[in-house]
Amino acid sequence: MTAPSVARQRRALLGVLLTVVMWGANVVLLKALLGGASAETINVGRFLIAGSVLVALSVRAHGWPRWDARTWLAVAAVGAVGNTMFQAFFLTAIRANPAGVGGLVTGIVPVLVLPLGLLLGQKVNGRQAVGVGVAFAGLLGLLAVTLQPGAHVTLGGLGWVLAAAGAWASYTLFNRPLTAQLGALPFVAFSLMLGCLPYLLWAVPHLHDLGKLAPLTMLGILVSALGANVLAYLAWANGANVLGAAKTAVWNSLAPAVALLLSAAVLHERLPGAVWIAAGIILLGAALANWPESRIRAQEAVASSSP
């Protein structure tokens, strides 16, 4: 196969970097939106907007899927983990923590993927094991912070961060074979459409009256859905296709750093130095665990995607 041109690689890298910024900024945006709407209203809006756009793009590109019943059930089940469970935990984590801490979810995911992968018979090399160990040291540092009186991070809040990361890590592991079999866009689109149904049924009684939502809140939900869940996904998938999954995945560790910086600059969060140090150690471990290797196959492109 012909190698991508330098210009195409640069465009792909730019898209990946913009994706990292969008994912980090999305955490800060969601934190701000929670001041004017319930988590259920925000998630339902994001699901409906992003799901409709992604399904339309998938059908236009690939036609309506002709999957058997077992495949549809598998897509729905994995989608429920990555959408109903993850989004419920993720918004709760953002609400229960400073935005900078809630944004660590995406940094913790690769640290959990590797140990969980061992349970499924996947191999972990020495560098990845060291990366996981470093990141867990950072998590222990955050845990120590929660034990201090009047801490900005509580044990319960950190628990929601880990729950959200665990849900996305599980989704990541189980979506790999389905993505390889069905294609990235069809799987993501229809897993979102089917996977959010349990959440929608639960959330209906908790929705805000749309007429009472501020126009800026509605605009924020639209921006979050189209930016973090549609444009960012497409740019990330293109980056993985052009640059390779391994080279793309390592950039994911910067999204929590963007969330930390923007939370301080926009929301004026003032986190103690211990939190910044612990977060830095976690992200260092995640980057080390995700560092690219020449033998990692490009089919794993979507496995490292974030919310």
Helicity level: over 70%
What's the structural domain tally? Answer: 1
- The radius of gyration is 19 Å
Q: Which spans have pLDDT < 50 for at least 5 consecutive residues? A: 295-305
- Averaging pLDDT over every residue, what do you get? 85
Secondary-structure element order, N to C: HHHHHHHHHHHHH
Question: Helix count, per DSSP?
Answer: 13
Distance between the termini: 31 Å
Number of strands: 0
Class derived from helix and strand content: mainly alpha
Task: Classify the beta-strand content into a percent band.
Answer: under 5%
Tell me about the largest β-sheet.
Answer: none
Which descriptor suits the 3D outline? globular
Transmembrane segments: 12-30, 42-59, 71-94, 100-120, 129-147, 153-171, 183-204, 216-237, 249-267, 273-291
Protein name: DMT family transporter
Keywords: Membrane, Transmembrane, Transmembrane helix
Membrane topology: Multi-pass membrane protein
Question: What do you see in this structure?
Answer:
InterPro entries: AA-Vitamin_Transporters, EamA_dom, EmrE-like. It is found in: Membrane. It holds the Pfam family EamA. The chain has about 300 residues and is mostly helical. About 75% of the residues lie in helices and about 0% in strands. Helix 2 packs antiparallel against helix 8. The C terminus is likely disordered.
